[in-house]
Amino acid sequence: MSALTPDLLRELVAEARLAPSVHNIQPTRWRLLGDGRLALVDDVSVRAPVADPAGHDVLVSHGAALEGMSLALNRRGFAITGMTTIEQQLSAQFAVLCNFAIRQGVAPDPLAGHVASRMSWRGKYAASPDDGTSVVQLAIARDDLICISHRPTIADIAGWAGQAEFSFIRGDDYRAELLAWMRLSPGHPHYLLDGLNRDALAMNSVEATAAGFVLGGLFKPLDRLGLAALLLADSAKTASASAIVLFCRPVGEDPLTTGRHFYRSWLEIDRAGFAACPISALADHPDFNDRLRKLGKVDADLRLVNVFRVGRPSKPLKPRHFRLPVDQLII
Ligand SMILES: Cc1cc2nc3c(=O)[nH]c(=O)nc-3n(C[C@H](O)[C@H](O)[C@H](O)COP(=O)(O)O)c2cc1C
């Protein structure tokens, strides 16, 4: 496969890295193999073990990166072929998760043009009565999405999201890990590179400083006073969404495949003119997962993998991506 030159690989990786990853940890690396195949490599030093103890979200993130690579190839008339998913340890830090060849000649993918504009929108959504119906249409087009657009039910789910998130935030290890991935001041050396910075979190400097204190040393006293939950509450944003979308995939599916569909679903949302943000806590918390499964009548053979809040952003989106440099992602 001589088509894949080092220069082309750099271009492809620059686009593939725009895929979402849990906490923006970006665990995916790429390696060009001697036979011209491309390997997706897991950097095992990049993890969020408290938020993601089973490592499922890391694999979903790798799957999203794989889909990102597929879309970058598609824009250049190439497609992935001959996928092999045998795990192979390269070193203490790196393990190949899959490798594939590249073939020429493929129909344009309508989602490829949305890679640059998709982003996590963590602000409020604009009130727009018909939008719920449009998100329903979008969900009907994909059989892995279930849309809830009934306003009182969205308000209930916003309350559940607050409870689910706070139940995790109460864990000392969870807060420590979250803070370690937060870049709350532009002076942080990784501010533009990875993790969650205050621009991505839609926080101003005062809010970001306050969040640092509330999640840090002040958490316990504030929690004793019953104030921590109030100060960290995100429910109003969820309640302003036009719809809550349940992302459900077959039980036992390869998480890389799940991740590819997770990214494609999010790109479909962008294509329909909406913005979204996952609320993993709702899927990760067994009680709320169960409640949502019942509410959405999710079939027993499907796993509720994640939950999106979806709507039109309250102000025009300025797409931005905080990512590691391409050179660091090719090994
Ligand atoms: C598996 C997975 C779970 C995620 N869960 C959450 C979440 O619970 N809350 C949130 O705000 N963002 C969540 N995200 C979004 C990431 O934080 C986001 O994709 C990353 O910071 C990169 O930013 P971008 O989406 O704006 O490009 C999740 C992403 C993935 C892939």
TrEMBL record:
- SUPFAM superfamilies xref list: FMN-dependent nitroreductase-like
Looking at the record's lineage, which domain of life comes first? Bacteria
Task: Cite the GO molecular-function annotations of the record.
Answer: oxidoreductase activity
Q: What is this protein called?
A: Nitroreductase
- Which organism was this protein described from? Bradyrhizobium uaiense
